[in-house]
Batch of 4 targets.
Target 1
Amino acid sequence: MAADLRYRRVLLKISGEALMGAREGGLDPEVVSRIADEIRSVHALGVELCMVIGGGNIFRGISGAAAGMERASADYMGMLATVINSLAVQNALEQRNVTTRVQSAISMQAVCEPYIRRRALRHLEKKRVVVFAAGTGNPFFTTDTAAALRASEMGCDALLKATKVDGVYDADPFRVPGAVRFERLGYREVLARDLRVMDASAVALARDSHIPILVFSIFENGGFARVVRGEGRYTIINAED
């Protein structure tokens, strides 16, 4: 079955907002369970899988700073929110017999491992899912940038951005009827057109590390498994021809 895989080691980036479903905040257990099922099916294919999960469903550092909070403090609060989400996903995966490790860039050894690159690589080699929490451990960097950084450090074949839509559009397809969907984009085009797929720093890091970014819908049943096979609907961002 592994012979059918186009990508054998991937990093999955999920926003915190995806975990709250239709709620205004927090976690929706049904959504977490659905996403865990998608991850389990990909893990069963033999894919070496690591993840970065945002914290926007609990706290966003940028919005906290906009409300008058000091930016560094707000960002640290956002990082702690990612740890909560990571532990929730770990719990859902281990209920499905998927061995999972959470590694945090901010040390909190009572609840998860500290981020150690060599240990994370060893977990992947042992087919454990690794969830990287607390962003980069530094304020002023988003979880998008953390995802590109960890994908580079882990030597991933691709960075998969899980969203609510099946690719990158030139406008919000939920708000703009007739928004155009892209099958393929170049890193420079994404940056030049400010398409907001991921932060510019994340796109630039993926470009420098030669890691393609695939944008797909995590809410399409079996969509994640199809993407790692190179099938299904997604937008791929890589080097221009």
Target 2
Amino acid sequence: MNTTTLLGNKPVNRMGFGAMQLAGPGVFGPPRDPAAARAVLLRAVELGVDHIDTSQYYGPDVVNDLIRESLYPYPDNLKLVTKVGARRDAAGGIFPAQRPAELVEGVEANLRSLRVERLDLVNLRLVGTPSGTVTPLEEQLGALEELRKAGKLDLIGLSNVDRAQVQRALELVDVAEIQNLYNVIDRRDDDLVTFAGEHEIAFVPFFPLAGGPAQLGRRASVVRVANAHGASTPQVALAWLLARYERMLLIPGTSSVAHLQENMGATEIELDPADLAALDAA
């Protein structure tokens, strides 16, 4: 299994880290143990993680502050990927923030909090509105493209999108990444993964562990393959994703160093055709 690939034109290790869970419960407020959160970030980089996925609205503010406090000045090879398109209220609610001015402010806020002049990639996360009114995709991507031309970001990605939206986006900008829900149990985006492959777009699944050991343990085929490899069910779930597509980039999140190290071990699992056939039943 190849453990490296490309994110746009950037070489990257396929096992990255999703920082969302470093915030408090519900991705809101500070963590119960900030020192433990910083320890996870430091250990991730020690283990070879060179791709951290974050956002200013995680917390809000909290996660980016932890990343900066823990890792700045950043290793030269570290890619910081963020997303814009949403905001939080004082009670933790999530609301759209997709007008061009809001997207610009979102990028600027990430730049300030992470203390960088340029972000490696910014995902536009599409969020529905209660009224059904949505800022046209052309305006949203136009704002990000202007920021790219101004040197504020290198690559543009999309999150929470369908194939039609990706196809429209490709008419407007270069798309380096798709970030959608996808895992060994929930494969509704199988066609979109195939589409990404046809266009050499990285696919970054969120919820890659399908709810964790409790959910995975209910799938007999996942348990059988895990037992055969002397691995955990989460490791098998991650290994399946890595086998699915050569530009699949994983960002499993955790606030535990032990779980981080377990997740990293998934890159050492080689699933054979019989394993993959068995996991198709999951």
Target 3
Amino acid sequence: MTAIAVTIAGSDSGGGAGIQADLKTFSALGVYGASVVTALTAQNTLGVQAIHDVPAAFVAAQMDSVFSDLAVGAVKIGMLSQAAVIAAVAEGLDRHGIRQVVLDPVMVATSGDRLLAPDAVEALRRHLIPRARVVTPNLPEAAALTERPIATSEAEVKAQADAIRALGAAAVLVKGGHGEGPESTDLLLTDSGFHALRAPRLPGRNTHGTGCTLSSAIAAGLAKGLPLLQAVEDAKIYVTDAIAAADKLSIGRGHGPVHHFHRWW
């Protein structure tokens, strides 16, 4: 059977993050990708110039259309900027019995532009985190979700992961890309405890879409039937290689995208 994954996220008109990055990642990893668009952005490598939210009822209609027809193996959820859309997505997941959910709690773009309305954070905690197979916050997002300062030590990262998992998520992956030091360490918390995933911290400015790409790579692995730990490990390798190859591209005048198709061109 063909492995199918769905991304429920915002569109990036510049092509480096959001729906576009997710679909590129699914394709690069041998998974058929479908999409539910939650917002349109006027966006490029320099930042986000405007956001146009898709009405919650139309988000629900897209979900019903896709899930009633396709045999979806996993879902990646990204930018959901409004509480009403978050509630609609949660209801849609329940309506169609979707359990393999990778939740990337997108709050701020790489450029620093805020993508999540403040009143939507509680809706995210209440409606989507309890439905997630794995939640994938970066350090600032983990701090926002737990209402704590940004973690500066492994002990603080673990404490925030514990707090997020206590909200109902089956697993939590706190990404270390915003940290310091020679290694970028992601910490995965599951039933069996913590698992550290380490990679060299790479120089370069072309890192747009890294979070979207990692979460969609995990979803691709789950759609292919991989256990969660293997899906996360494979995704970490894929993203690290995509960052390392990003400087081969010349895209825009700001933070360019990672190279999703580094294995082919």
Target 4
Amino acid sequence: MEAFKYQRVLIKLSGEALAGQQKYGIDIVNIDSICEDIAGVASDGLEVALVIGGGNIFRGVSSSAKGMDRASADYMGMLATVMNGLALQDRLEKQGLVTRLMTAITMQEVAEPYIRRRAIRHLEKKRVVICAAGTGNPYFTTDTAASLRAMELRAQALLKATRVAGVYDKNPEEDPEATLYPKLTYLDVLQRGLKVMDSAAISLCMDNKLPVVVFNLLEKGNIRRVVSGESVGTVVQGE
């Protein structure tokens, strides 16, 4: 079995990652590519938890900005993450993995309720745990949910999967002169207002000294490179 730098990680996937080149919905080909990378490291003994967003189906913040009640919009967004979680579970199991979908909102017909000790036991048994429905509370993003779950499950790193190579000083999709930061501190991110994760999520990681690795999910093999300790993307940690 390959020696990894981390033995247990939480990977934060955006809903847009599941949409692929589409602007909306679920792209099975794209999900299969992601799941192949996850299966590759999970099969070699890495303990993997996932938190999935729902922006490819419904985005609560933008809907509340258009006049919908924020709490109602956020609950709709949580349900969208459950739909994504079911799709991810199906494709991971097609790769031969044993998975558990756990939701912060109880819906026992389709998923287990999220119970921390049970989730840890699943990880110890080398099952991939998919955490959906955010924190179960409105006004909290899935980034914050990812930080919270990473802490609860005693993950050694939070891997933030994105469409670009890491954290830049400007949007690299709009400005080709944007500069990649290989390393940042939590305070760098907060003080410069860098779009890594929301401030609540970064503050939670800072308080608990949890490293965050931001990397390009679309490049095959990057998950293995990150967990093996290679210099990939941007690492956010303390001084």
